[in-house]
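Sample intake sheet
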Amino acid sequence: MTHFDMQTRVKRKKWLEMLLGADWNLEPAGGSTGEAFIAHDGSRKLFLKCNSSPFLAVLSAEGIVPKLLWTKRLANGDVITAQRWVYGRELSSTEMQKREVAELLQQIHASSDLLEMLKRIENQVSTPDVLLGNLKRKAIFQNNTPSSWLQDAFLFLEENKHKIEHDEFVVCHCDLNHNNWIMEKDDSLFLIDWDGASVADPALDLSVLLHWYVPKNKWLDWLSHYG
């Protein structure tokens, strides 16, 4: 994702203020990209984002993210989306073991509408071969010459990647950190920040979530809720 300098952020904020009108106040929503803002006019509050994932509308329609209220294009070509502000909180690490997390993730992975939309946007499926290639390029970029242990790890993965080939692909979020799960006051659960989503084996999501958040002796129980 592109990172903007301060001048660009100021310009973007001014464009949004002109779009919304004088009654609205804007403040950055955090993050280093300068693409997200919180807008409020006293009684109303919105989450605004520049150039969100094109399949945000489908996510909203399925209740996976907070409701998409409108989409507008600025004169400079940026697309602005406004979503309902959710009065809630991020899940804790322990709460990732909840049945609701497993059920929402299963809903995402089972959605044919999400899959068809992302296939139109993504040119490449994140197969083991593609993922390994991305890792190698990242390692070379960061280290120029990867260390011997890293080269050994790549060799192991290269020799064994065929063992995890899978031909049933779904939409994977690819960043299931507990901070991206929002529980509203009425206990509605949302999964936000879809910029890194990819078409892949569902294990790409499941393996990370189980490893980081669910004790191994509870994996079967959690997966029974996933379905």
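Comment: DSSP finds eight helices and ten strands in the chain. The mean pLDDT is 90.
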